Amino acid sequence: MYIDALLLLSDSQAITAATNSTNVIDLGNPDVKRRVGTGEAVGLGIFVEVAATGGPLTFNVIDSASSDLSSPTVLATVALTAAQMTAGAKFFIGIPPGQGRQRYLGMSESGTGTVTVSAAILPQRGFEEWTAYANAYAI
Hints:
Blueprint: E1 8-15, E2 19-20, E3 25-26, E4 42-53, E5 57-64, E6 73-80, E7 90-94, E8 104-111, E9 114-123
Antiparallel strand pairs: 1-9, 2-8, 3-8, 4-7, 4-9, 5-6, 5-8
């Protein structure tokens, strides 16, 4: 599965405190045509790169009228323990159809643990078969 750079919310983001994703998706004019999850099922794919330590973490798919994701609406959420977030683990948070009524889509994280993740909005189809491999080149 290819991950579109425009749908990437976090790229190797080290989470040490409550924060938002490093990137946001601009849905443009938030009219009926732009509702996320209508049609093919989509959601937030979370890929653990460095195993979690400490307490549990909660991940939320959020939308907001502001690009800094202030005053967000939570569309979907999952709470994970550090034991679940081993290196290489992946989690999918489905976005209910018809969501995304505000312009910007992102992810928020909160909790007492630390972890490094990448996250992107992806189609649910094929998510479980997706595998990440270390790159074999240096730039």
